[in-house]
From TrEMBL:
InterPro entries: Acyl_CoA_acyltransferase, GNAT_dom, Ribosomal_N-acetyltransferase. Residues 15-177 form the N-acetyltransferase domain. This is N-acetyltransferase domain-containing protein. One of its GO terms (cellular component) is cytoplasm. One of its GO terms (molecular function) is protein N-terminal-serine acetyltransferase activity. It comes from the Bacteria.
Amino acid sequence: MTGLAPDLSVTTERLTLRPFAPSDADRIRAVIAARHAFLPPGAPGHPSGISQWLAHGVHELHRSGQGVHLAMDAEGLVVGAISLFKTLWGAGTAEVGYGVHPMHRGRGYAPEAVRGLVRRLFESTTLRRIELRANLDNTASLRVAEKAGFVREGVLRAAALEDDGPHDVVVFGLLRTDLS
């Protein structure tokens, strides 16, 4: 299999990683109103865009065959998001990214989600390598990568441009053979 199943869903010990759905509208509305930044790129900045985003926008990455955005669902509550992107099926490579709602950080949801998604991808696709990139000054994200079993491979100097300027980025990698 070279692509992702249209109904990709992953169950871990405490989470269900699943496609975002119209039923998530109230939760997404609350997230946007509180200005919490953990939703995938392209998420609406105003409540008026929620319906369109949940019906189409958040699923465009999957429709294009380049990855997927999934909700991290803990007992019916969206506590975060995880994405697979920059997927090159011919090369067998992709990148994973994640975000957790501020009220749910520090509970181990991100490493659990990353481990679960990566394991499923290596079992059900032709991917052979998955990267994870984190700003060097983002200690929590660096710990997520390490807890999820990724190997630190190097630092890209000034590779990320944020609102406060350039940041160094740590590149982590995980190979299919690392899970053996």
